[in-house]
TrEMBL record:
GO biological-process terms attached to the record: bile acid biosynthetic process; cholesterol homeostasis; cholesterol metabolic process
Cofactor: heme
Protein name from the UniProt record: Cytochrome P450, family 7, subfamily B, polypeptide 1
PANTHER family (alphabetical): CYTOCHROME P450 7B1 (PTHR24304:SF0), CYTOCHROME P450 FAMILY 7 (PTHR24304)
Binding residues annotated for heme, in chain numbering: 451
Top-level division of the source organism's lineage: Eukaryota
A cellular component term, taken from the record's GO annotations: endoplasmic reticulum membrane
Alphabetical keyword list: Cholesterol metabolism, Endoplasmic reticulum, Heme, Iron, Lipid metabolism, Membrane, Metal-binding, Monooxygenase, Oxidoreductase, Steroid metabolism, Sterol metabolism, Transmembrane, Transmembrane helix
Keyword check for Secreted: no
Protein family: Belongs to the cytochrome P450 family.
Transmembrane segments: 6-23, 288-310
Pathway recorded for this protein: Lipid metabolism; bile acid biosynthesis
PROSITE patterns to which the protein is assigned, alphabetical: CYTOCHROME_P450 (PS00086)
Length: 521
């Protein structure tokens, strides 16, 4: 044991010494470099505890642009959203895919896409993302709507059978969102495995495959921050075998048996088949990766959205009113016994719901936009200010600092469901001082590399909120702590809650005017 500790210590110490001797020096025009090894280790921990606070302190001390040495990489942070347009404009010199390709391939277990072994594949993958948007989104929306209702109806029916004595059923709100969204998104994108086609009455049988998939997914996801940070999977105990199980689940031979996959997944399957150099397990790894992308952020986002709406009577009333206006006041019998349809156009009309979703994304998103510098160059940030960057360095935007900037968003820590509505329309003008901020809301990134699933994701969230509010009476349990963000996943997207939140629900009994009164029952 002592020997191991000594070896590790000597390894780290010699790395630090070598780096001090040969590490690079600051040059003219480069941003302030924050270094120093012992403080750095402490700082890495501080960053993990609260990245926003940590970066804010550095900003106060060093200004809007500074460089930090993290895990051997020089990362230049741009902390002021007024400087972001310069980065977005330099997409060629500040590339997203060099980082994302390397990080995703190591995390999910497929070879890097930009390799010569797969000519043209990277661009073809990007083109297929269009099948998550535009006209293709209509059929995804329709399928998702049906899946959400089937899953929720089954859930209500089976809970009624399991707990007939209860008027209300208590459950973890996160677990509820996770169960429903995980299955609905899977079925919508990937279609139905044979197990899912069994007689719907045999519900437990139907659930088994998705339960196993979700359990393995959860275990993998818990290790995701370490994997994406470059930890070799072999060091992470059982994670390697769990990833293998997940990849096998998406093996092309199994996927052949799934009925009605989305055009998006079907086209990706066909694309991967065109490359003989790609092995079947690697194709499975690609499918698993896109499945992770499709639920990894959407599930916590749904949690925050429902949590905030249930915590704010005003928000609940406004959203419910909007839903009823759009779908035309059906009665509760109709809701429980018929398929509710909501088209994309109807979802687009729900501006209060959209604002409520955007507000919860603003408060819970902690993604970092990473770009790799492709050549030595000086980036003109505004008319007077430019910073010089070196090839291979990283430029990072930290949207959370914008989202929580009280200059842009007064009472920035507060949830205001209608923050993004003005004069009955979406509010799109936000200012910092007297300057208009172009990139004021960035949970999905910015510029050409913005998340290609963003329209699908917002649609899904709207559908989830509409269907659950229409089919269920829902209340947060009183006398519990407010939900807090789990900041340990900072940099990776929507933060999950750090504490357990319980809510109670039952099949909807009455549709109009009950929401406010219900809370005090
Ligand atoms: C609330 C839900 C979601 C959030 C907050 C989110 C956020 C993000 C962010 C921040 C990026 C990186 C963008 C950049 O740095 O420029 C990204 C990339 C990506 N997202 Fe999402 N996303 C969500 C849902 C989805 C869904 C539902 C899908 C797919 C079905 C998806 C697919 C992707 C893909 C494929 C990329 C990589 C794109 C590329 O390589 O160019 N995302 N997402």
């Amino acid at each position: 044991m002592l020997e191991t500790l000594l070896t590790v210590f000597l390894g780290i110490a010699s790395f630090f010494v070598l780096h001090r001797l040969f590490g690079r020096r600051r040059r003219e025009g480069e941003p302030p470099l924050i270094k120093g090894w012992i403080p750095f280790l402490g700082k890495a921990l501080e960053f993990r505890k609260d990245s926003h606070q940590f970066l804010q302190q550095l900003q106060q001390k060093h200004g809007d642009v500074f460089t930090v040495l993290i895990a051997g990489k020089y990362m230049t942070f741009l902390m002021n959203p007024l400087l972001y347009p310069a980065v977005v404009k330099h997409g060629r010199q500040l590339d997203f895919h060099e980082f994302s390709d390397a990080a995703a391939s190591a995390t999910f277990g497929y070879p890097t896409v930009r390799s010569e072994k797969y000519p043209g594949m990277s661009n073809k993958i990007l083109k297929l993302y269009l099948l998550l948007q535009g006209p293709a989104l209509n059929s995804l929306t329709q399928t998702m709507m049906g899946n959400l209702q089937v899953i929720l109806r089954h859930r209500l029916a089976s809970t009624q059978v399991a707990r007939p004595e209860c008027d209300w059923w208590e459950e973890g709100l996160y677990q509820f969102c996770e169960h429903v969204m995980f299955e609905a998104t899977f079925l919508t994108l990937f279609g139905r495995p044979p197990q899912a086609n069994k007689d719907p009455k045999i519900y437990l049988e139907r659930l088994r495959w998705i339960d196993t998939l979700r359990e393995n997914f959860r275990k993998f996801d818990a290790m995701f921050p370490l994997l994406i940070a470059g930890t070799p999977i072999g060091l992470l105990r059982k994670t390697k075998s769990i990833r293998e199980k997940l990849i096998k689940f998406f093996h092309p031979d199994r996927m052949k048996e799934w009925t009605s996959p989305s055009e998006f997944v079907q086209s990706r399957t066909e694309l991967f088949q065109q490359y003989d150099t790609l092995k079947d397990m690697e194709r499975g790894a690609h499918h698993f990766a896109i499945f992770w992308a499709s639920v990894g952020n959407t599930i916590p986002a749904c949690f925050w959205c429902v949590y905030h709406i249930l915590s704010n009577p005003q928000a609940l009333t406004a959203v419910m009113k909007e839903i009823m206006n759009v779908i035309g006041d059906p009665d509760v019998e109709y809701i429980h016994n018929h398929n509710i349809t909501l088209t994309r156009e109807q979802l687009n009309r729900m501006i209060y719901l959209e604002s409520a979703i955007n507000e919860s994304l603003r408060l819970s998103s902690a993604s970092m936009n990473i770009r790799v510098v492709q050549e030595d160059f000086c980036l003109n940030l505004d008319t007077q200010y430019s910073v010089c960057l070196r090839k291979g360095d990283i430029v990072a935007l930290h949207p959370q600092s914008t989202h929580l900037d009280p200059d842009i968003y007064p009472h920035a820590q507060q949830y205001q469901f209608d923050r993004f509505v003005e004069d009955g329309k979406e509010k799109t003008e936000f200012y910092k001082g007297d300057q208009k901020v172009r990139y004021y809301r960035m949970p999905f990134g910015s510029g050409a590399t913005m998340c290609p699933g963003r329209f699908f994701a917002v649609n899904e969230m709207k559908q989830f909120v509409c269907i659950t509010l229409l089919m269920c009476d829902m209340q947060l349990i009183v006398d519990q702590q407010e939900a807090r963000l789990d900041k340990s996943r900072a940099g990776l997207g929507i933060l999950p809650p750090a504490n357990h939140i319980t809510f109670r629900y039952r099949p909807k009994r009455q549709l109009k005017g009950r929401e406010e009164g219900d809370r005090n029952e």
